[in-house]
Amino acid sequence: MIDLQIPLLTTERLVLRGPDDSDYENIATFFEDADRSWGFGGPLDRTGAWRWFASMIGHWALHGYGFWMIETKEGDLVGFVGIWYPEGWAEPELGWVMLESGEGKGYAYEAAVQIRRFAYEVLEFDTLCSYILPGNTRSVALAERMGAWHEGDIENVSHGREMVYRHPAAKDLPGVIV
């Protein structure tokens, strides 16, 4: 078995950990819900969700980074957040998904800020973007809360037209060590 050595990260309220088998049912449930998953390439049937889940794990092996599962410190899975860079994309992106149980509590912001800090301090990225499908107002609000701005639109090979939200450079964020 491949040891991916996914770093365990923590915030005040959250644990960000690598994916494991027990996460699949939550991923499948998320992707089968068209109203919830449309902004992340869904809906997907169980086979499609399994392939997405397996590619999420494989992404770690190929790039050394990927999506972390977001758990509360009480052990409840509430979403996933990370850095995604599949074939054909212009650059790595910071992405997030909240399960219904995790919405409206500030978890996505807390987790995404921690992952962005990791990308800058550990992976030594200079900047990040977030690709957001038009109409995904909640993701736009989160990106803007993080200081990102609408840089323009692209034609994404996976999702069609998406808005590019550019995050502040590492050097422009207080407390980030560059």
Secondary-structure-based class equals alpha+beta
Unreliable stretches (pLDDT < 50, length at least 5) are none
Instruction: Give the CATH topology of the domain at 9-125.
Output: Aminopeptidase
- Tertiary shape: globular
Q: Counting H and I runs of at least 4 residues, what is the number of helices?
A: 5
Largest sheet, spatial ordering of strands: 1-2-3-4-5
CATH evolutionary superfamily of the domain at 9-125: Gcn5-related N-acetyltransferase (GNAT)
Approximate strand percentage = 25-35%
User: How far apart lie the N and C ends?
Assistant: 34 Å
The CATH architecture of the domain at 9-125 comes to 3-Layer(aba) Sandwich
The description of the largest β-sheet is:
5 strands, antiparallel
Overall mean pLDDT score?
Answer: 93
Estimate percent helicity. 25-40%
How many β-strands, per DSSP? 8
Q: What kind of assembly state do the chains in view correspond to? A: single chain
User: What's the Cα radius of gyration?
Assistant: 15 Å
The level-1 CATH class of the domain at 9-125: Alpha Beta
Task: Summarize it.
Helix content is 31%, strand content 25%. The protein has helices at residues 24-32, 34-37, 46-63, 107-121, 137-145; strands at 9-10, 14-17, 67-72, 77-84, 93-98, 129-132, 149-156, 160-166.
Walk me through the structure.
The protein is of the alpha+beta class. The chain has a domain at 9-125: Aminopeptidase, CATH 3.40.630.30. It is built from five helices and eight strands; from the N terminus they run ββαααβββαβαββ. The strands form two sheets. It has a five-stranded antiparallel β-sheet with strand order 1-2-3-4-5. The protein has a three-stranded antiparallel β-sheet with strand order 6-8-7, covered by helices on one side. Helix 1 crosses helix 3 (46-63). The radius of gyration is 15 Å and the shape is globular. The termini are far apart. Residues 14-170 form the N-acetyltransferase domain. GO terms for molecular function: acyltransferase activity, transferring groups other than amino-acyl groups. This is N-acetyltransferase.
